[in-house]
Amino acid sequence: MLLGYLFGIPSERRLVQEIQVNLAYRWFLGMGLTEKVIDASTLSQNRRRRFNDSEIYQQIFDNIVEQAIAKGLISGRVLYTDSTHLKANANKGKSRNEQRIVEHSQYIDALNQAINEERELNGKKP
Question: Which residue, 31, 41, 62, 78, is most buried by CB atoms nearer than 10 A?
Answer without folding.
Answer: 31
